[in-house]
Design a protein that fits this description.
The protein has a domain of 155 residues: 3-Layer(aba) Sandwich (Rossmann fold). The chain has nine helices and ten strands. The longest helix has 14 residues.
């Protein structure tokens, strides 16, 4: 499977009412990397995510692989970047699971046989084979999230953008989802308030505050910084508060502008 790197270069965005949502955000993800996008409500996470497939477009440059996002490349970008919404009911609207997962490949113009192979593969990967004829609204929340992810994977996307994927899941569903996501090859951007999940899943995290990236780097380093967490409206995850001998974690934090970006 092809995977793509992702680059944002000085991306800024303001809503029509004048609210500034992103302030010159620069960020680079290596192909196959998992980035956790963290921040309090209103920090700009959703706005940033919607820039990655052109649902919102501000100033600056968004690049998926070698392809800059513009009017001409927009259909290609949307085929490369799969966006998974927080609420799967926003993504599932067909009468059966099969029809939901087939919707994207059909609209890409795939031949029937190719479309069916895509659907079968996506449902196999997400562990949802056998549910093809079930109505999505009869599924559990965890199953709906997996089917919603299958609708994205069936597009053969290179980048996955996930908005609060663990929201509403019980502990077992959360563990299963983390394990599943770790096995995927795509480049992944995960916006989440579940900071333990970020520690488990992400290669790197970036913290947004008032539309700016204020820190990025190793998840344990960033999330173990109590002063940074307090300043950005977050909390140090329980697993990082103490060493096994009760000594507080001390990590170096890469501030925005000091390291990779």
């Amino acid at each position: 499977m092809a995977v793509a790197d992702v680059t944002l270069d000085r991306v800024s965005f303001s809503y029509p009412d004048g609210q500034v949502a992103l302030r010159s955000v620069s960020l680079h993800l290596r192909a196959g990397e998992t980035l956790g996008l963290l921040g309090a409500n209103g920090a700009g996470k959703s706005t940033l995510m919607l820039h990655l497939n052109g649902l919102l477009r501000g100033t600056g440059t968004v690049r998926i692989g070698d392809l800059p996002l513009n009017d001409r490349s927009l259909p290609q970008i949307r085929a490369k970047v799969g966006l998974l919404f927080q609420n799967p009911d926003d993504q599932l609207f067909m009468p059966t699971v099969f029809e939901d997962v087939a919707f994207g490949p059909r609209n890409q113009g795939l031949a029937e046989a190719d479309m069916r192979r895509r659907v079968e593969r996506a449902l196999e990967v997400t562990g949802m084979r056998g549910t093809e004829q079930r109505p999505p609204h009869h599924l559990s929340l965890g199953q709906k999230k997996r089917v919603a992810l299958a609708t994205v994977l069936a597009m053969d996307c290179e980048v996955l953008v996930l908005d609060e994927p663990t929201s509403g899941l019980d502990p077992r569903g959360r563990r299963d989802l983390a394990r599943f996501l770790m096995e995927l090859e795509q480049t992944r951007i995960v916006a989440t308030h579940d900071l333990e999940f970020a520690v488990e899943l992400c290669d790197r995290v970036a913290v947004l505050c008032e539309g700016e990236i204020v820190a990025q780097g190793d998840p344990r380093a960033i999330l173990g910084d109590a002063e940074l967490m307090e300043r950005t409206g977050l909390e140090v995850p329980h697993s990082l508060r103490f060493h096994e001998h009760g000594i507080p974690h001390q990590h170096a934090v890469v501030r925005a502008g000091d390291g990779e970006g």
